[in-house]
Design brief:
Length: 496
């Protein structure tokens, strides 16, 4: 067997080894005997070097006209399109998601790259009248500086693109620390940007673990903004770190997303949506459909049909075109799922399907868990309140629309929700009253598009949104300009 490829960090336009002199394995979760590569085990010295390179590059990059920045992103987008299949296969090997989903992940990066490239000619401000004569007023966007980006493993190219592209088009430079489970996809994205012509030091890539590389990046005084996607526990620590130096911070964290199925719903459609929402990406999405509130009038039929379909899903290697559900990302996450299944049983939820690790045949080489369904759940059970991040769905019977809304809003998270109904009045009430950042009607809780804001309420985040033009508000500062051409002192609010 050929030795694994060793990937280096990208700092100041050079591919370099870590100051630690150590590397770590990037395992294929479907087959732990296969390595996707080895990456640098970076430490605070590597982070400091990357931030220094980004600081130096910022002085010239911020003065590069935004349309010129956009031209580089357009080139990067075209390169990503050409390499989509290669990058998707590499992603499946390191993350496990089925190949079609990996293609979608790369496509999302392509979409975001082209979208933000276009914003290079649309970094609009405002012009307005003054309350004084012979005076002009306007506002413009200004870049912030060095942005530290800390990204998760479940969307290993899409989420880095969500963060890198708006940061660059606004004139910032970046240091990205991807999740240690999936550094290859972020590496491929950064390498593509380099080949597209991003100047030296504008984009820097540092692989490694959270305490060794992520924490130093969040703490670094020259990193003026931090964007983090991951667990609420880590997000809270980063928020406390950033608060001390008043850094700009955006957090995208957990979800406990609900699908409401009313008595008038198209059950065929609802079941298809529930299967995709609960078990797509093996349930490893912050928007995964982990709770399904079903009206009692259709609960029995929905549960029966949903369980039958869940049991029939094919679990396996994501590179196998017959696979519908891929592996869990690692052993630790698989054990967490097993623990929650145990909690569900202790809480007297009815285990209707799955609930066990799969180890037969080739599945023994990886981290596989059966699609799992709990029935007759109480909305206050831990399995209905806490994020599991795996292929586990909890069915909650409800007797009315109002009860469904109460159940939906009765969690600490507020990322995504959906309702299946043919009643337009209930649909509009749901859109108004569901306390989540995203609401779907007759669609599952997953499927966000890059040209619309992404984010949630309550403990899902800290109020910012990613994607779309709203991302520009985080990666830029507003500067208000007053130009007085009266040739005399004019005092606002006094001389009016």
């Amino acid at each position: 067997m050929a030795p694994p490829k060793i990937y280096k960090n990208f700092v100041g336009g050079e591919w370099v080894e870590s100051a630690s002199g150590e590397a770590f394995d990037n395992l294929n979760p479907a087959n732990c005997s296969e390595l996707a590569g080895q990456f640098q085990k970076s430490n605070s010295s590597d982070v400091a070097a990357a931030v220094a390179a980004a600081t130096d590059a910022y002085h010239s990059w911020r003065l590069t006209p935004p349309p010129k920045r956009g031209e580089i992103l357009f080139r990067a987008g075209r390169l990503l399109m050409e390499r989509k299949e290669v990058f998707a296969e590499a992603m499946t090997r390191e993350m496990g998601k089925v190949l079609d989903e990996a293609r979608g992940d790369v496509q999302e990066a392509i979409d975001m790259t082209f979208y933000m490239a276009g914003e290079g000619r649309r970094l609009f401000g405002q012009t307005t009248t003054s309350e004084l004569p012979d005076k002009s007023c306007m506002s413009v966007r200004s870049p912030i500086g060095v942005c530290g980006l800390i990204t998760p493993w479940n969307f290993p190219m899409a989420i880095p693109a969500w963060k890198i592209m708006p940061a660059l088009i606004c004139g910032n430079t970046v240091v990205i620390k991807p999740a240690e489970d999936t550094p290859l996809s972020a590496y491929n994205l950064v390498k593509t940007l380099d080949e597209a012509g991003v100047p030296r030091g504008v984009v820097n890539f540092v692989a490694g673990f959270g305490p060794d590389a992520g924490a130093p990046l969040a703490e670094h005084s020259a990193a003026r903004a931090i964007s983090f996607t991951g667990s609420s526990e880590v997000g809270r620590t980063i928020a406390q770190t950033c608060a001390g130096s008043f850094k700009h911070l955006t957090l995208e964290m957990g979800g406990k997303n609900i699908m409401i199925v009313m008595e008038d719903a198209n059950l065929d459609l609802a079941i298809e949506g529930a299967l995709w929402g609960a078990f797509g990406t093996t349930g490893q999405r912050c928007t995964a459909t982990s709770r399904i509130a079903v009206h009692k009038a259709v609960y029995a039929e929905f549960a029966k049909r949903f369980v039958e379909r869940a049991r029939g899903l094919r679990v396996g290697d994501g590179l196998d075109p017959k696979t519908q559900v891929g592996p869990i990302i690692n052993e630790s996450q698989l054990k967490t799922i097993e623990q929650y299944v145990g909690i569900g049983r202790e809480e007297s939820a009815k285990l209707l399907a799955g609930g066990e690790r799969l180890t037969g045949g080739n599945l023994a080489k990886g981290f596989f868990f059966a699609p799992t369904v709990f029935g007759d759940c109480d909305a206050k059970m831990r399995i209905c309140q806490e994020e599991i991040f795996g292929p586990v769905a909890s069915l909650i019977p409800v007797s009315s629309f109002d009860q469904a809304l109460e159940v939906a809003n009765g969690v600490v998270y507020g990322l995504s929700s959906s309702i299946y109904t043919r009643d337009v009045n209930k649909a509009f009430r749901a859109m108004r009253d569901l306390d989540t950042g995203i609401v779907y009607v007759n669609a599952p809780t997953i499927g966000a598009e890059t040209h619309l804001p992404f984010g949630g309420t309550k403990q899902t985040g800290n109020g910012h949104r990613e994607a779309a033009v709203t991302a520009l508000d985080f990666y830029s500062e507003w500067k208000t300009l007053y130009i007085d051409y009266s040739d005399k002192l004019q005092r606002a609010q006094i001389d009016t």
